[in-house]
Design brief:
Length: about 425
């Protein structure tokens, strides 16, 4: 029986798959909430700190740029450590950076705090996904990643609305401190309840650890990272500006913003569970292509056509659902690209690419947009057109990577087992 066919119990983790997925999901929840809460709060702290709303993309971009750089650096050494220990360090660093955000006094200090949070948040994401890929066999990995990535939806359903209400009650700083406090609880729980995770170390003994430069010359690696780049830049050209656009351009009331995230996140949560199961059955390229159709059609109708008849709630629900389709399909497939002893390296590189793409999207959208005297954003049609062009590349890249992964897995299955006579 191969390592990928064994269950976590057979691998002597001393913890059930379900409990492990819960702990990893909790880590992802805090990590994602730390990133997500900044965007809907943008108009609040922009007003308090005299930051132009057209420049809010720079705040998101500072986080993602730092996460990209730290992901690239950490890819050199993360596979050498126990996953649990490395995850603890990155989570506590994220907590400090988040708390510093609540102490910001202007755009420069807020950007510095987000840089610190991103420097630790990027590796934390790659480590969490590496844990899932280490302990869940490929046949169940789509469903497992759907569960873990549902942390995004839970953050939307519970975390963001709660943060928005905290901001209304106690000011925009309070959500930063609240997320930091929750991060301490989750990180401490993971340390105490998660077993040591050294499976990748034993599997990697005697294996050759290629340099990052050599690793990046693998066509399948490059193609999968290219797919990651297109997904993230397409999404984050739009996401940092959603709260501002919805409130000022579409006239959606601030008091109902929490409800928007509650409903959108709930639908996204359900979609991720469904997509995870169908990815395992129908493949990533099919489900990713379906999500792309939703994504492209929605951006064209809402931002390019600017159709007044499309309801804000409907737009937000479909947008979140399309992202669920695309992200689960992508991550389920890319988790199968690296060998287990190089998984954290690959995930760190993927995290770096994700954040470079997110930063590029956020910063480029800030350059394309202009704030009008009534605080409406001008230029979203241009931003959406760029996002659509990028989004259309995903199904093609997923199809190529999926074929290469199947061929590689088939070749490995045909190789003789040296343990057998």
């Amino acid at each position: 029986m191969s390592d990928d066919q064994k269950t976590s119990a057979e691998l002597e983790l001393g913890i059930s798959e379900g409990r492990m997925l819960f702990l990893v999901s909790a880590v992802q929840f805090v990590n994602i909430l730390d990133f997500m809460i900044v965007m809907p709060l943008g108009p609040d702290f922009a007003k308090a700190l005299a930051i132009p709303v057209s420049k809010l993309g720079l705040i998101g971009g500072s986080y993602t740029a730092a996460a990209a750089l730290s992901g690239l650096v950490s890819s050199q050494f993360l596979d050498r450590f126990d996953r649990r220990s490395a995850l603890a360090v990155t989570m506590f660093g994220l907590v400090v950076g988040t708390a510093c955000g609540g102490l910001a006094t202007g755009l420069p200090t807020l950007m510095l705090a987000r840089v610190l949070a991103g420097a630790f948040g990027g590796p934390a994401t790659s480590l969490a996904l590496s844990v899932v890929a280490d302990v869940i066999p490929p046949l169940r990995r789509g469903r497992a990643l759907g569960l873990v990535m549902a942390a995004f939806s839970v953050a939307s359903v519970l975390g963001v609305p709660a943060g928005l209400e905290l901001a209304r009650w106690g000011g925009w700083r309070l959500p930063f401190f609240g997320v930091a406090a929750l991060g301490v609880v989750v990180a401490t729980s993971a340390i105490f309840f998660m077993p040591p995770l050294r499976l990748h170390l034993s599997r990697g003994r005697g294996q050759t650890h290629t340099s990052v430069a050599t690793f990046l010359r693998e066509p399948t690696v490059l193609l999968s990272l290219g797919a990651t780049f297109t997904v993230m830049m397409a999404s984050f050209s739009v996401i940092p500006n959603l709260s501002t656009y919805i409130q000022h351009n579409l006239g959606y009331p601030r008091s109902r913003l929490g409800l928007l995230y509650l409903v959108g996140g709930s639908v996204s949560f359900i979609a991720m569970q469904v997509v995870g199961r169908f990815v395992d059955r129908l493949g990533s390229s099919f489900m990713g292509g379906l999500g792309t159709v939703l994504f492209v059609a929605l951006l064209f109708v809402v931002f390019v056509m600017q159709a007044p008849w499309f309801p804000v709630m409907g737009f937000f629900v479909v947008f979140m659902t399309s992202m669920a389709f695309r992200n689960v399909a992508l991550n389920a497939l890319t988790s199968r690209v690296p060998a287990s002893h190089e998984r954290a390296r690959f995930m760190s590189l993927q995290s770096a690419v994700q954040h470079v793409a997110s930063a590029t999207g956020a910063i480029s959208s800030a350059l394309c947009l202009r704030e009008l005297p009534d605080h409406r954003l001008q230029g979203m049609a241009t931003v959406a057109t760029i996002s659509i062009a990028l989004g259309l590349a995903l199904p093609v890249l997923l199809g190529i990577v999926e074929r290469r992964v199947h061929a590689s897995e088939h070749a490995r299955a045909q190789m003789p087992n040296p343990a057998q006579p």
